[in-house]
Structure to design on (387 residues):
Protein backbone atom coordinates (compact mmCIF):
# COMPACT_ATOMS: atom_id res chain seq x y z
CA UNK A 1 0.00 0.00 0.00
CA UNK A 2 2.71 2.46 0.88
CA UNK A 3 4.59 1.95 -2.40
CA UNK A 4 1.41 2.32 -4.46
CA UNK A 5 0.47 5.47 -2.58
CA UNK A 6 3.97 6.91 -3.09
CA UNK A 7 3.31 6.61 -6.84
CA UNK A 8 -0.07 8.32 -6.55
CA UNK A 9 -2.39 5.28 -6.67
CA UNK A 10 -5.49 4.91 -4.47
CA UNK A 11 -7.06 1.66 -3.32
CA UNK A 12 -10.06 0.18 -5.10
CA UNK A 13 -11.98 -2.90 -3.90
CA UNK A 14 -14.09 -4.75 -6.41
CA UNK A 15 -16.37 -7.75 -5.73
CA UNK A 16 -14.95 -11.25 -5.84
CA UNK A 17 -17.85 -12.39 -8.03
CA UNK A 18 -18.61 -10.79 -11.39
CA UNK A 19 -20.82 -11.62 -14.35
CA UNK A 20 -19.09 -14.23 -16.48
CA UNK A 21 -19.44 -12.14 -19.64
CA UNK A 22 -17.10 -9.51 -18.18
CA UNK A 23 -14.22 -11.96 -18.41
CA UNK A 24 -15.14 -13.75 -21.62
CA UNK A 25 -15.49 -10.41 -23.41
CA UNK A 26 -12.20 -8.98 -22.18
CA UNK A 27 -9.69 -11.74 -21.47
CA UNK A 28 -10.56 -13.42 -24.78
CA UNK A 29 -12.34 -16.64 -25.69
CA UNK A 30 -9.25 -18.54 -26.88
CA UNK A 31 -7.19 -17.98 -23.73
CA UNK A 32 -6.35 -20.60 -21.11
CA UNK A 33 -8.19 -18.62 -18.41
CA UNK A 34 -11.50 -18.45 -20.27
CA UNK A 35 -11.22 -21.86 -21.91
CA UNK A 36 -10.64 -23.93 -18.83
CA UNK A 37 -9.65 -22.05 -15.69
CA UNK A 38 -12.67 -20.05 -14.56
CA UNK A 39 -14.89 -21.02 -11.62
CA UNK A 40 -18.25 -20.31 -13.20
CA UNK A 41 -21.70 -21.05 -11.81
CA UNK A 42 -25.32 -20.00 -12.24
CA UNK A 43 -27.07 -18.14 -9.44
CA UNK A 44 -30.74 -18.65 -8.48
CA UNK A 45 -31.93 -16.56 -11.40
CA UNK A 46 -29.75 -18.51 -13.83
CA UNK A 47 -27.34 -15.67 -14.29
CA UNK A 48 -23.81 -16.90 -15.03
CA UNK A 49 -21.30 -15.62 -12.47
CA UNK A 50 -17.55 -16.18 -12.13
CA UNK A 51 -15.06 -15.91 -9.29
CA UNK A 52 -12.67 -13.27 -10.58
CA UNK A 53 -9.59 -14.79 -12.23
CA UNK A 54 -7.85 -11.41 -12.52
CA UNK A 55 -8.22 -7.82 -11.43
CA UNK A 56 -8.08 -5.59 -14.50
CA UNK A 57 -11.50 -6.25 -16.04
CA UNK A 58 -13.32 -5.72 -12.70
CA UNK A 59 -11.47 -2.45 -12.07
CA UNK A 60 -12.26 -1.20 -15.56
CA UNK A 61 -15.91 -2.24 -15.15
CA UNK A 62 -16.14 -0.30 -11.86
CA UNK A 63 -14.41 2.68 -13.48
CA UNK A 64 -16.91 2.72 -16.37
CA UNK A 65 -19.95 2.24 -14.12
CA UNK A 66 -18.97 5.00 -11.72
CA UNK A 67 -18.28 7.38 -14.62
CA UNK A 68 -14.99 8.26 -12.94
CA UNK A 69 -13.58 9.63 -16.21
CA UNK A 70 -16.02 12.53 -15.98
CA UNK A 71 -14.53 13.66 -12.69
CA UNK A 72 -10.86 13.25 -13.45
CA UNK A 73 -9.07 12.47 -16.74
CA UNK A 74 -6.52 10.40 -14.83
CA UNK A 75 -7.46 7.60 -12.44
CA UNK A 76 -4.83 5.50 -10.71
CA UNK A 77 -6.03 2.51 -8.69
CA UNK A 78 -4.37 -0.34 -6.84
CA UNK A 79 -5.95 -3.50 -5.51
CA UNK A 80 -5.05 -6.43 -3.30
CA UNK A 81 -7.05 -9.59 -3.04
CA UNK A 82 -7.80 -13.20 -3.93
CA UNK A 83 -8.08 -14.42 -7.52
CA UNK A 84 -9.29 -17.84 -8.66
CA UNK A 85 -8.08 -20.01 -11.54
CA UNK A 86 -8.68 -23.69 -11.99
CA UNK A 87 -5.06 -24.50 -12.84
CA UNK A 88 -3.12 -27.62 -11.95
CA UNK A 89 -1.76 -26.79 -8.48
CA UNK A 90 1.99 -26.97 -7.95
CA UNK A 91 4.65 -24.98 -6.15
CA UNK A 92 3.84 -21.31 -6.72
CA UNK A 93 0.59 -22.09 -8.54
CA UNK A 94 -2.66 -22.30 -6.63
CA UNK A 95 -6.34 -22.24 -7.41
CA UNK A 96 -6.88 -19.38 -5.01
CA UNK A 97 -4.00 -16.93 -4.90
CA UNK A 98 -3.53 -13.26 -4.13
CA UNK A 99 -2.53 -10.44 -6.38
CA UNK A 100 -1.40 -6.90 -5.79
CA UNK A 101 -2.05 -4.91 -8.94
CA UNK A 102 -2.36 -1.39 -10.25
CA UNK A 103 -4.31 0.16 -13.11
CA UNK A 104 -3.42 3.58 -14.47
CA UNK A 105 -6.25 4.94 -16.61
CA UNK A 106 -6.13 8.01 -18.82
CA UNK A 107 -2.45 8.34 -19.72
CA UNK A 108 -1.41 7.48 -23.26
CA UNK A 109 2.17 8.62 -22.80
CA UNK A 110 4.91 5.95 -22.62
CA UNK A 111 6.01 7.42 -19.30
CA UNK A 112 2.85 5.90 -17.77
CA UNK A 113 4.29 2.50 -18.75
CA UNK A 114 7.61 3.47 -17.17
CA UNK A 115 5.84 4.60 -13.99
CA UNK A 116 3.94 1.31 -13.65
CA UNK A 117 7.09 -0.76 -14.17
CA UNK A 118 9.05 1.41 -11.74
CA UNK A 119 6.32 0.94 -9.12
CA UNK A 120 6.43 -2.83 -9.55
CA UNK A 121 10.20 -2.96 -9.16
CA UNK A 122 10.11 -0.56 -6.20
CA UNK A 123 7.64 -2.84 -4.47
CA UNK A 124 9.78 -5.89 -5.12
CA UNK A 125 12.89 -4.00 -4.02
CA UNK A 126 11.16 -2.89 -0.80
CA UNK A 127 10.40 -6.48 0.16
CA UNK A 128 14.02 -7.35 -0.50
CA UNK A 129 13.80 -8.88 -3.95
CA UNK A 130 16.58 -7.78 -6.25
CA UNK A 131 18.31 -9.71 -9.04
CA UNK A 132 15.10 -10.11 -11.01
CA UNK A 133 14.82 -10.05 -14.77
CA UNK A 134 12.45 -7.56 -16.37
CA UNK A 135 11.40 -8.72 -19.83
CA UNK A 136 9.58 -6.29 -22.05
CA UNK A 137 8.01 -6.36 -25.48
CA UNK A 138 5.60 -4.50 -27.72
CA UNK A 139 2.60 -6.47 -28.94
CA UNK A 140 1.66 -3.86 -31.54
CA UNK A 141 -1.83 -2.44 -31.90
CA UNK A 142 -4.99 -3.00 -33.93
CA UNK A 143 -3.24 -1.39 -36.91
CA UNK A 144 -0.10 -3.52 -37.10
CA UNK A 145 -0.87 -6.71 -35.18
CA UNK A 146 -3.46 -8.23 -37.57
CA UNK A 147 -0.96 -8.23 -40.46
CA UNK A 148 1.65 -9.94 -38.30
CA UNK A 149 -0.85 -12.53 -37.04
CA UNK A 150 -1.97 -13.37 -40.58
CA UNK A 151 1.61 -13.85 -41.66
CA UNK A 152 2.32 -15.93 -38.55
CA UNK A 153 -0.67 -18.19 -39.22
CA UNK A 154 0.51 -18.69 -42.82
CA UNK A 155 4.04 -19.56 -41.70
CA UNK A 156 2.71 -21.93 -39.04
CA UNK A 157 0.52 -23.66 -41.62
CA UNK A 158 3.74 -24.54 -43.47
CA UNK A 159 5.55 -25.98 -40.45
CA UNK A 160 2.35 -27.20 -38.78
CA UNK A 161 3.23 -30.89 -38.96
CA UNK A 162 6.27 -30.31 -36.74
CA UNK A 163 4.19 -28.71 -33.96
CA UNK A 164 2.19 -30.29 -31.12
CA UNK A 165 -1.61 -30.45 -31.19
CA UNK A 166 -1.90 -27.52 -28.74
CA UNK A 167 0.24 -25.32 -30.97
CA UNK A 168 -1.76 -26.21 -34.06
CA UNK A 169 -4.96 -25.25 -32.26
CA UNK A 170 -3.48 -22.00 -30.96
CA UNK A 171 -2.22 -21.15 -34.43
CA UNK A 172 -5.76 -20.85 -35.71
CA UNK A 173 -7.39 -19.39 -32.61
CA UNK A 174 -4.74 -17.19 -31.01
CA UNK A 175 -1.39 -17.39 -32.79
CA UNK A 176 0.46 -15.06 -30.39
CA UNK A 177 0.02 -17.69 -27.68
CA UNK A 178 2.11 -20.12 -29.71
CA UNK A 179 5.23 -18.76 -28.11
CA UNK A 180 4.06 -19.99 -24.70
CA UNK A 181 4.53 -23.63 -25.70
CA UNK A 182 7.05 -25.33 -23.41
CA UNK A 183 7.60 -28.36 -25.68
CA UNK A 184 11.33 -28.30 -26.69
CA UNK A 185 10.62 -29.58 -30.23
CA UNK A 186 8.03 -26.85 -30.78
CA UNK A 187 10.36 -24.25 -29.31
CA UNK A 188 12.97 -25.07 -31.94
CA UNK A 189 10.44 -24.54 -34.72
CA UNK A 190 8.99 -21.42 -33.09
CA UNK A 191 12.43 -19.85 -32.66
CA UNK A 192 12.66 -19.67 -36.46
CA UNK A 193 9.40 -17.75 -36.86
CA UNK A 194 9.51 -13.96 -37.24
CA UNK A 195 8.58 -11.92 -34.17
CA UNK A 196 6.19 -9.01 -34.04
CA UNK A 197 9.04 -6.52 -33.61
CA UNK A 198 9.74 -6.17 -37.34
CA UNK A 199 6.03 -5.66 -38.03
CA UNK A 200 5.31 -2.81 -35.62
CA UNK A 201 3.81 0.34 -37.12
CA UNK A 202 5.65 3.62 -36.57
CA UNK A 203 3.54 4.84 -33.63
CA UNK A 204 4.03 1.48 -31.84
CA UNK A 205 7.73 1.48 -32.62
CA UNK A 206 8.08 5.03 -31.25
CA UNK A 207 6.07 4.17 -28.17
CA UNK A 208 8.29 1.19 -27.42
CA UNK A 209 11.45 3.23 -27.98
CA UNK A 210 10.16 5.88 -25.56
CA UNK A 211 9.36 3.26 -22.91
CA UNK A 212 12.81 1.67 -23.10
CA UNK A 213 14.45 5.10 -23.15
CA UNK A 214 12.41 6.07 -20.07
CA UNK A 215 13.49 2.87 -18.29
CA UNK A 216 17.12 3.65 -19.11
CA UNK A 217 16.76 7.13 -17.69
CA UNK A 218 15.46 5.83 -14.34
CA UNK A 219 18.18 3.15 -14.28
CA UNK A 220 15.88 0.14 -14.69
CA UNK A 221 17.51 -2.64 -16.66
CA UNK A 222 15.48 -4.91 -18.90
CA UNK A 223 15.76 -7.39 -21.71
CA UNK A 224 13.68 -7.17 -24.84
CA UNK A 225 11.94 -10.52 -25.22
CA UNK A 226 10.09 -10.35 -28.56
CA UNK A 227 8.17 -13.53 -27.70
CA UNK A 228 6.29 -12.36 -24.61
CA UNK A 229 2.61 -12.70 -25.43
CA UNK A 230 0.83 -12.60 -22.02
CA UNK A 231 -2.25 -14.69 -21.35
CA UNK A 232 -4.94 -12.09 -21.93
CA UNK A 233 -6.19 -10.74 -25.23
CA UNK A 234 -6.68 -7.12 -24.30
CA UNK A 235 -3.04 -6.09 -24.28
CA UNK A 236 -1.69 -3.68 -26.92
CA UNK A 237 1.80 -2.26 -27.26
CA UNK A 238 3.76 -2.67 -24.02
CA UNK A 239 3.77 -6.07 -22.32
CA UNK A 240 6.18 -7.02 -19.58
CA UNK A 241 7.02 -9.72 -17.10
CA UNK A 242 9.28 -9.95 -14.09
CA UNK A 243 11.05 -13.28 -13.86
CA UNK A 244 12.78 -14.66 -10.78
CA UNK A 245 15.27 -17.48 -10.91
CA UNK A 246 14.83 -20.04 -8.14
CA UNK A 247 11.07 -20.46 -8.31
CA UNK A 248 11.13 -23.46 -10.62
CA UNK A 249 8.63 -23.66 -13.45
CA UNK A 250 6.42 -20.91 -12.02
CA UNK A 251 9.08 -18.26 -12.29
CA UNK A 252 6.99 -15.25 -13.37
CA UNK A 253 6.26 -13.18 -10.32
CA UNK A 254 4.50 -10.30 -11.98
CA UNK A 255 3.45 -8.98 -15.31
CA UNK A 256 1.31 -6.49 -17.08
CA UNK A 257 0.85 -4.27 -20.04
CA UNK A 258 -1.11 -1.64 -21.87
CA UNK A 259 -4.79 -2.08 -22.74
CA UNK A 260 -5.82 1.07 -24.59
CA UNK A 261 -9.08 -0.25 -26.09
CA UNK A 262 -10.46 -1.97 -23.00
CA UNK A 263 -12.40 0.88 -21.35
CA UNK A 264 -14.19 1.64 -24.62
CA UNK A 265 -14.84 -2.04 -25.20
CA UNK A 266 -16.62 -2.16 -21.83
CA UNK A 267 -18.88 0.74 -22.77
CA UNK A 268 -16.80 3.61 -21.39
CA UNK A 269 -15.02 6.52 -23.06
CA UNK A 270 -11.94 5.95 -25.21
CA UNK A 271 -9.48 6.04 -22.30
CA UNK A 272 -6.10 4.29 -22.44
CA UNK A 273 -4.81 2.13 -19.61
CA UNK A 274 -1.76 0.33 -18.32
CA UNK A 275 -1.34 -1.95 -15.33
CA UNK A 276 0.28 -4.98 -13.78
CA UNK A 277 -0.40 -7.70 -11.24
CA UNK A 278 2.07 -9.46 -9.02
CA UNK A 279 1.46 -12.81 -7.31
CA UNK A 280 1.89 -12.41 -3.58
CA UNK A 281 2.38 -16.11 -2.80
CA UNK A 282 5.27 -16.20 -5.28
CA UNK A 283 6.73 -13.05 -3.75
CA UNK A 284 6.64 -14.70 -0.32
CA UNK A 285 8.11 -17.95 -1.60
CA UNK A 286 10.95 -16.07 -3.19
CA UNK A 287 11.60 -14.01 -0.06
CA UNK A 288 11.88 -17.23 1.95
CA UNK A 289 14.16 -18.88 -0.59
CA UNK A 290 16.41 -15.88 -0.89
CA UNK A 291 16.66 -15.62 2.92
CA UNK A 292 17.62 -19.30 3.13
CA UNK A 293 20.13 -18.94 0.29
CA UNK A 294 21.65 -15.89 1.98
CA UNK A 295 22.36 -17.88 5.13
CA UNK A 296 24.03 -20.62 3.12
CA UNK A 297 26.18 -18.42 0.92
CA UNK A 298 27.36 -16.09 3.63
CA UNK A 299 30.82 -14.85 2.72
CA UNK A 300 33.43 -13.46 5.08
CA UNK A 301 36.15 -11.12 3.81
CA UNK A 302 39.42 -11.13 5.69
CA UNK A 303 41.32 -7.98 4.73
CA UNK A 304 44.85 -7.57 6.02
CA UNK A 305 46.29 -4.06 6.08
CA UNK A 306 44.83 -0.61 5.54
CA UNK A 307 45.05 -0.64 1.71
CA UNK A 308 43.19 -3.96 1.46
CA UNK A 309 40.54 -2.77 3.91
CA UNK A 310 39.92 0.38 1.83
CA UNK A 311 39.47 -1.76 -1.27
CA UNK A 312 37.19 -4.23 0.49
CA UNK A 313 34.96 -1.46 1.85
CA UNK A 314 33.92 -0.48 -1.70
CA UNK A 315 33.45 -4.07 -2.83
CA UNK A 316 31.33 -5.33 0.00
CA UNK A 317 29.03 -2.32 -0.10
CA UNK A 318 28.36 -3.15 -3.75
CA UNK A 319 27.83 -6.86 -3.03
CA UNK A 320 25.53 -6.18 -0.10
CA UNK A 321 23.44 -3.77 -2.19
CA UNK A 322 23.23 -6.52 -4.79
CA UNK A 323 21.57 -8.78 -2.23
CA UNK A 324 24.50 -10.86 -0.92
CA UNK A 325 25.22 -11.51 2.75
CA UNK A 326 28.82 -10.48 3.33
CA UNK A 327 30.59 -9.90 6.64
CA UNK A 328 34.10 -8.64 7.35
CA UNK A 329 36.35 -7.50 10.11
CA UNK A 330 36.42 -3.73 10.16
CA UNK A 331 39.10 -3.42 12.85
CA UNK A 332 41.54 -5.55 10.90
CA UNK A 333 42.67 -8.03 13.53
CA UNK A 334 45.13 -10.82 12.78
CA UNK A 335 44.27 -13.26 10.02
CA UNK A 336 43.98 -16.00 12.60
CA UNK A 337 41.35 -14.20 14.65
CA UNK A 338 39.48 -13.19 11.49
CA UNK A 339 39.35 -16.83 10.39
CA UNK A 340 38.05 -17.79 13.81
CA UNK A 341 35.25 -15.27 13.49
CA UNK A 342 34.39 -16.46 9.95
CA UNK A 343 34.04 -19.95 11.35
CA UNK A 344 31.89 -18.73 14.24
CA UNK A 345 29.35 -16.95 12.05
CA UNK A 346 29.09 -20.00 9.78
CA UNK A 347 30.59 -18.44 6.65
CA UNK A 348 30.60 -20.79 3.67
CA UNK A 349 33.69 -19.14 2.23
CA UNK A 350 36.32 -16.60 3.12
CA UNK A 351 37.98 -14.17 0.74
CA UNK A 352 41.46 -13.28 1.92
CA UNK A 353 43.19 -10.10 0.70
CA UNK A 354 46.46 -8.55 1.83
CA UNK A 355 49.20 -6.46 0.21
CA UNK A 356 50.43 -9.40 -1.87
CA UNK A 357 46.93 -10.04 -3.32
CA UNK A 358 46.50 -6.34 -4.14
CA UNK A 359 49.69 -6.53 -6.18
CA UNK A 360 48.71 -9.64 -8.14
CA UNK A 361 45.03 -8.71 -8.57
CA UNK A 362 43.99 -12.11 -7.24
CA UNK A 363 42.37 -12.93 -3.89
CA UNK A 364 42.52 -16.20 -2.02
CA UNK A 365 39.11 -17.84 -1.71
CA UNK A 366 38.83 -20.50 0.98
CA UNK A 367 35.96 -22.97 1.05
CA UNK A 368 35.21 -23.44 4.75
CA UNK A 369 33.53 -26.80 4.25
CA UNK A 370 36.18 -28.56 2.17
CA UNK A 371 39.03 -26.51 3.70
CA UNK A 372 40.49 -25.96 0.22
CA UNK A 373 41.54 -22.65 -1.26
CA UNK A 374 42.46 -21.15 -4.61
CA UNK A 375 43.33 -17.80 -6.20
CA UNK A 376 40.52 -15.87 -7.87
CA UNK A 377 41.01 -12.74 -10.05
CA UNK A 378 39.34 -9.66 -8.55
CA UNK A 379 36.96 -9.44 -11.54
CA UNK A 380 35.55 -12.86 -10.71
CA UNK A 381 34.92 -12.14 -7.03
CA UNK A 382 31.29 -10.94 -7.48
CA UNK A 383 30.27 -14.28 -8.97
CA UNK A 384 32.17 -16.10 -6.23
CA UNK A 385 30.19 -14.16 -3.62
CA UNK A 386 26.89 -14.96 -5.33
CA UNK A 387 27.50 -18.65 -5.95
P1 LIG B 1 -1.37 -12.81 -14.73
O1 LIG B 1 -2.61 -12.18 -14.19
O2 LIG B 1 -1.59 -14.15 -15.34
O3 LIG B 1 -0.56 -11.88 -15.55
O4 LIG B 1 -0.48 -13.14 -13.47
C1 LIG B 1 0.22 -12.15 -12.75
C2 LIG B 1 0.96 -12.82 -11.62
O5 LIG B 1 0.03 -13.48 -10.75
C3 LIG B 1 1.89 -13.92 -12.08
O6 LIG B 1 3.13 -13.41 -12.47
C4 LIG B 1 1.98 -14.78 -10.83
O7 LIG B 1 2.91 -14.23 -9.92
C5 LIG B 1 0.62 -14.65 -10.22
N1 LIG B 1 -0.22 -15.82 -10.54
C6 LIG B 1 -0.92 -16.06 -11.67
N2 LIG B 1 -1.57 -17.24 -11.59
C7 LIG B 1 -1.27 -17.77 -10.38
C8 LIG B 1 -1.63 -18.97 -9.68
N3 LIG B 1 -2.48 -19.87 -10.20
N4 LIG B 1 -1.11 -19.18 -8.45
C9 LIG B 1 -0.27 -18.28 -7.89
N5 LIG B 1 0.10 -17.12 -8.49
C10 LIG B 1 -0.39 -16.86 -9.71
Amino acid sequence: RSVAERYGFVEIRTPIVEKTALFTRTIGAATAIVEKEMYTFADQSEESLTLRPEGTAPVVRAYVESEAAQHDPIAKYYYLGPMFRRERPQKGRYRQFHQFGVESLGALHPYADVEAIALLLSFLGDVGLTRLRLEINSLGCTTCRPGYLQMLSRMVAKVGAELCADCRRRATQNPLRLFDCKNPDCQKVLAELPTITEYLCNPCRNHFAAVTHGLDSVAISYVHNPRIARGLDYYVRTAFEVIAEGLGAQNAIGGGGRYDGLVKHLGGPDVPGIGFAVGLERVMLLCQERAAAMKKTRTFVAAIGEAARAQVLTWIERWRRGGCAVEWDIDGRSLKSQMRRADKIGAAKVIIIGDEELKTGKAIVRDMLTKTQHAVPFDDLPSTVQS
Observations:
- The chain is about 40% helix and 20% strand.
- The longest strand covers residues 75-84.
- The chain has a mean pLDDT of 91.
- The radius of gyration is 25 Å.
